[in-house]
Amino acid sequence: MEIFPEGLEPMERVRASPQEAYAANRDNWDGRAQVHAASAAYDLDGLVADPERVSSVVQRDLQILGPHLPDAEDRRGADGIPRLDGLDLCHLQCHIGTDTLGLARRGARCTGVDLSPRSLAIARDLAARAGHEIRYVEANVLAAADAVGEDFDLVHTSIGTICWLQDLGEWGRQIAALLRPGGTFFFRDSHPMSNVMLDTDPGVMTPAYGYFPLAEGEVFTHADGVTYTDGDTAVITQPRNYEWSHSVSEILMALVDAGLQVVAVGEHQDLPWPQHPSMTAEGEGWVLPEPWRSQVPVALSVVARKP
User: Fold this and answer.
1) Residue 4 within any structural domain of the chain
2) Is position 218 within any domain?
3) What SS3 string covers 194-234?
4) Which of 31, 135, 258, 293 could be joined to 176 by an S-S link, Cβ 3.0–4.6 Å?
5) What is the pLDDT of residues 134-182, one digit of tens each?
């Protein structure tokens, strides 16, 4: 049972088919793409104008992934960010391609995958304006391998991804199918423990959502019509979206059951956005205040390898 502080509007737990949920999410992200492309938070014109710019998300991802890359010692960039030269990379749930561009700027030959056609149209235009050849494929991640039709040295997915997927078992199988033997998978997202917490009252952090996966056929839904870049200043035309909860064990076992070898798991104190109202900016990320910072991990990372 979810426990919500008085006055808080929770996400509603409902029954819906994955097909219905994915269709609504695709339309929702088409709307978000329009807002994000015009938002100062993404700053597409600035990204094009500065060929050295790489998002803070990509920088943090590569800091974590760097020691596990092939020839890791030789990939240390002069700026401290690992290089990806010579590696074929598939970026799952790439949205409007800003992070895909960053990965390409670190030397990878990139393919991006997303279910939102409007997001991919913006991503293609961004890549062309920035002078990079990046292939983009429209597909649900759970059918990515057949849609893409290639295999890769690296598969990469990061920040705000698996909550939009119902079946992590199939997610793991798709990742394994996209990887070449010896290839590496990288994942980073908000931590399942942090996802269940709310801090609506000063000094109080409250468990509000169940930690464990939902029952078969259940999904969380909400329709607030806003997005994380612009608050209530820009309204999404199709506001309804659907999300699923996933535990740490479910994430790890999806990869293990798909035949991948987990080589590193990290739990982190920083996220690239303020998931909780009490979080404050620190460097390029956001952190909880103490004592919560020492009590609740806010991000989870996983590196896995295909034998």
Assistant:
1) no
2) yes
3) HHCEEEEECCEEEECCCCCCCCCCEEEEECCCCECCCECCC
4) 258
5) 999 999 999 999 999 999 999 999 999 999 999 999 999 999 999 999 9
pLDDT in tens, 92-127: 999 999 999 999 999 999 999 999 999 999 999 999
* Residue-number span of the structural domain to which 127 is assigned: 13-305
Indicate the number of domains in the chain: 1
Where residue 233 falls among pLDDT bands split at 50, 70, 90? Answer: low
For residue range 239-292, what is the model confidence (pLDDT) as tens digits?
A: 899 999 999 999 999 999 999 999 999 999 999 999 998 999 999 999 999 999
Instruction: Give the whole-angstrom CA distance, residue 107 versus residue 100.
Output: 11
* Whole-structure pTM value: 0.94
- How many C-beta atoms lie closer than 10 Å to residue 220's C-beta? 21
Token pair listed for 210: 């169940």
Label residue 186 exposed, middle or buried (CB < 10 Å: 0-12, 13-18, 19+): buried
The number of residues in the chain equals: 307
Q: Are strands 241-243 and 285-287 parallel, antiparallel or unpaired?
A: unpaired
Residue 282: inside a domain: yes
DSSP of the chain, one letter per residue?
Answer: -----TT--PPEEEE--HHHHHHHHHHHHHHHHHHHHT-TTT-HHHHHH-TT---HHHHHHHHHHGGGSTTGGGGB-TTSSBP-TT-EEEEES-TTSHHHHHHHHTT-EEEEEES-HHHHHHHHHHHHHHT---EEEE--GGGHHHHH---EEEEEEESS-GGG-S-HHHHHHHHHHHEEEEEEEEEEEE-HHHHTEEEEETTEEEE-S-SSPPPTTEEEEE----BTTTBTTS--SS--EEE----HHHHHHHHHHTTPEEEEEEEES-BSS-SSTT-EEETTEEEPPTTHHHH---EEEEEEE--
Q: CATH no. for residue 273?
A: 3.40.50.150
